[in-house]
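User: Structure please.
Assistant: Input sequence and predicted structure:
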Amino acid sequence: MTLRQRHLWIAIVTTLGVWGLYGWRLVEHIRLGDLARSGFAGKMGGLFLLGLVLIVVAEGVLTLIARLLPHPDTREGAAERKASLQASHISLMALIGLVTLTAAVLFVLGWIGQPVMSHLLVAVTPANLLVLIANGLMACIVVSELIRFSMTLALLRARR
């Protein structure tokens, strides 16, 4: 396995682990009714920052370990660059689609207006609703990155 492939696997595992745990905690807070309480935004903001720190530390340490293990070639060849570029294009298209879908859902909710929003605001404070929207956008980015990592791996294997 090349260093590039090891790094992609590290990125997949850490992304799934950290953001999966974050998503699980988000769902738990929602299930416990924290959306109607004022401390929800602060709790999720702290967890978000912790998630960012965990991603940086975990990927950094695991990449350092992967670099120390023997690997056949340290140079990135044309095949790796081409696979990475193609995967990035696919990831970008997925991100555009996910953000467009999120915007469309928000637009429809705004268009429908008062009947939906009045019921929603009984269970959610306006600030916490913004936190949920931000988490939806972050989920779009995480899914897009997982697509990029996975597609790069798949394209690298297809070229060998």
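Residues 41 and 131 are 6 Å apart (CA to CA).
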